[in-house]
């Protein structure tokens, strides 16, 4: 072989090698977007400056809104457990039975049971699509003392969760387990332990970052139900001298914003920002005084309205951001609620809900990807507040039929425990719900009432009970009939 021929062969071999290598690299790069769902605990729009909050600045959250999509009409549920089970399953509380708050580590019986197919979570379904799944923050739906691998069974590959208050005969342990902030009590695959002298939000975020670093070359679905800024309020590492409920609350909100910025910076550092969709929202409105706060939004004083069916209590801040994926600078009046998240995640990942799994929500993926200008929702619903109760069969809602609200872009109705519409509001003319129009007879209002009545007629006459395998009461359980969970 001549020297010229040898050189040509080397070039060809090198070119083939390069093409093979780049082809393998392309094959290994995930085409499915990462999903980072951040849900803070007890925070209304009056504490997010891009929603008109005047008493605080949240620059990192505002940047997500400016570079993405901000929703005006997104519903959570009124309180903790209903919001979380709705989000996880894509079902309204009347189907899951979690129509009231139920703090499992505190009250025991009535856990969120992975063995029941209707309780299938988005995490399990995303794993089927090849996603690596992770959760960090607040859970409270299982007792990790009895079910140490509950998170894995719900579909999460890894986790770092505040356990929730673990009621115990050992009062020292009980006090330790309440800590979600300083000296946080956190459950991981290695078990539960107290991290003395450390601030929980830093630990949850650091666990999340470690997971992203290990899995950056794979598609990831990450659920971050933050513990902030739920009471009891706490001083943060950045503002250790913060005083009073309001001062500490503001410090905690600023720390939320800091954690959001830290996660965005990490995504940039890992080179995966442009294939990551971030959703920022809250589980319900802010807590009311005296434990909670009053904020100012667009010139109006807003009293925290957690556990109410008012717009202040359930119309959540909801921001979607993903450079190159989600259109920037969009403000939308599209309707969505937490039932939509499961089908949305699945569509973003290239899948659909199983045909044998009931899902109440509809995917908003086409909307957030800029393929549609509106969602497919004609109405959204919220329900579920107050404490649940026990009877001879176990956990159940306080009423056979829980009160709820239904709304579209203009009108909203309140439905009581007797399945009757008792309030009607025109939210475009009366956003603060001060004028009940139920007795008005205009054709427009009668048409709206007819629409909502048709939805109500479709709903079951009785709410379901939570699905779980019964078990004996734990020796540390509190008596729910004597002392209500807060």
UniProtKB/TrEMBL annotation:
Residues 33-350 form the Sulfatase N-terminal domain. The keyword Lipid metabolism does not apply. Residues 1-25 form the signal peptide. Pfam families: Sulfatase. Gene3D superfamilies: 3.30.1120.10, Alkaline Phosphatase, subunit A (3.40.720.10). CDD domains: sulfatase_like. Keywords: Calcium, Hydrolase, Metal-binding, Signal. GO terms for molecular function: arylsulfatase activity; metal ion binding. The keyword Signal applies. InterPro entries: Alkaline_phosphatase_core_sf, Sulfatase, Sulfatase_CS, Sulfatase_N. Belongs to the sulfatase family. This is N-acetylgalactosamine 6-sulfate sulfatase (GALNS).
């Amino acid at each position: 072989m001549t020297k010229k021929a040898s050189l040509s062969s080397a070039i060809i071999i090198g070119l083939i090698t390069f093409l093979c290598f780049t082809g393998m690299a392309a094959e290994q790069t995930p085409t499915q977007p990462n999903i980072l769902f951040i849900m803070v605990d007890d925070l209304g729009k009056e504490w997010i400056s891009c929603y008109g909050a005047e008493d605080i600045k949240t620059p990192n959250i505002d940047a997500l809104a400016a570079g993405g999509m901000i929703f005006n009409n997104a519903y959570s549920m009124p309180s903790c457990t209903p919001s979380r089970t709705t989000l996880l399953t894509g079902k309204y509380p009347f189907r899951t039975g979690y129509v009231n708050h139920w703090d499992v580590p505190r009250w025991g019986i009535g856990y969120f049971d992975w063995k029941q197919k209707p309780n299938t979570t988005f995490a399990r379904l995303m794993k089927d699509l090849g996603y690596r799944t992770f959760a960090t923050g607040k859970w409270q739906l299982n007792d990790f003392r009895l079910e140490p691998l509950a998170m894995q069974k719900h579909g999460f590959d890894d986790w770092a969760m505040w356990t929730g208050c673990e009621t115990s005969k050992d009062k020292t342990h009980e006090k330790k387990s309440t800590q979600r902030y300083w000296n946080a009590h956190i459950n991981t695959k290695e078990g539960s332990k107290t991290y003395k002298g450390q601030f929980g939000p830093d630990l949850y975020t650091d666990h999340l970052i470690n997971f992203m670093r290990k899995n950056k070359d794979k598609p990831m679905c990450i659920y971050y139900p933050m513990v902030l800024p739920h009471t009891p309020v706490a001083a943060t590492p950045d503002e250790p001298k913060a005083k009073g409920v309001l001062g500490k609350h503001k410090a905690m909100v600023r720390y939320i914003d800091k954690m959001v910025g830290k996660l965005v910076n990490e995504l940039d550092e890992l080179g995966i920002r442009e294939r990551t969709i971030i959703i920022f929202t809250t589980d319900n409105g802010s807590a009311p005084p005296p434990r909670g706060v009053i904020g100012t939004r667009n010139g109006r004083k807003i009293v925290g309205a957690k556990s109410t069916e008012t717009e202040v209590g359930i119309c959540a801040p909801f921001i979607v951001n993903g450079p190159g994926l989600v259109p920037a600078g969009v403000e939308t009046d599209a309707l969505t609620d937490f039932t939509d998240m499961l089908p949305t995640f699945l569509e973003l990942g290239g899948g659909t809900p199983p045909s044998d799994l009931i899902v109440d929500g509809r995917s908003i993926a086409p909307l957030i990807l800029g393929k549609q200008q509106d969602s497919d929702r004609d109405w959204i619903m919220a329900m579920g507040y107050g404490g649940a109760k026990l009877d001879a069969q176990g956990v159940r809602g306080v009423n056979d039929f829980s009160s709820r609200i239904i709304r579209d872009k203009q009108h909203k109705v309140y439905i009581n425990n007797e399945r009757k519409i008792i309030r009607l509001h025109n939210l475009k003319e009366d956003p603060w719900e001060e004028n009940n129009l139920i007795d008005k007879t205009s054709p427009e209002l009668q048409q709206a009432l007819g629409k909502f009545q048709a939805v109500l007629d479709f709903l079951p006459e009785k709410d379901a009970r939570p699905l779980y395998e019964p078990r004996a009461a734990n020796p540390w359980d509190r008596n729910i009939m004597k002392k209500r969970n807060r």
